[in-house]
Amino acid sequence: MKLNEIKDNEGASKDRMRVGRGIGSGKGKTGGRGVKGQKARSGVAINGFEGGQMPIYRRLPKRGFNNIFASEYVTVSLGRIQTAIDAKKLDPKATIDAAALKAAGVIRRAKDGVRVLADGELTAKVTLEVAGASKAAVEKLEKAGSSIKLLVEAAEAAE
What we know:
Blueprint: H1 56-59, E1 74-77, H2 78-86, E2 95-96, H3 98-104, E3 114-117, E4 127-130, E5 132-133, H4 135-143, E6 147-150, H5 151-158
Parallel strand pairs: 1-3, 2-4, 3-5, 4-6
Domain Large ribosomal subunit protein uL15/eL18: 75-148
Subunit structure: Part of the 50S ribosomal subunit.
Keywords: Ribonucleoprotein, Ribosomal protein, RNA-binding, rRNA-binding
C-alpha cells in the first residue's frame, strides 16, 4: 500500500445533497424546509422560542441583583509588581500607588482603586499605598520588610 493510494471505503462518505434543484431530485421546490412561514425564510433563528411551551428563561426564578454601588478594584499580584521593578519600570524607593502602577504600565486604569494579591514573590523593599490587599499579601510584604498603607480600610475606619 502507498500513501497516494489511501482512500475511504466505498460508501463511507456521502455526497452532499444539492437542495432546491428541481422536483425530480426529491429536494426541490421548498428544499426540505416544509411549507411557507417564518422558518421557511432565510436568516431566521427564533432564539429562546420553544414552540409555545413556557421558555426556560421564564420557567426559572429570578435570583440575585447587581449592586450599583459596589466598588470595582483592579487586582495586581506581588509577582507582577516585582517584574515591573526588575524591568526598572517601578522605583522601589518611591511610594508605589495607583498612579505609579499606571505610569509603569502594570495597570490600565485605576477604577475604584488597586487591590494587591499574594501571587508570586516580592523580594524588593517597597512602600505601597493601595486601596486594599489580601491577608496573605500583607504577610508576604511584611516578611520582605516592605510597608503597606491601605486607603480604603482607613476610610472605612473613619466613618
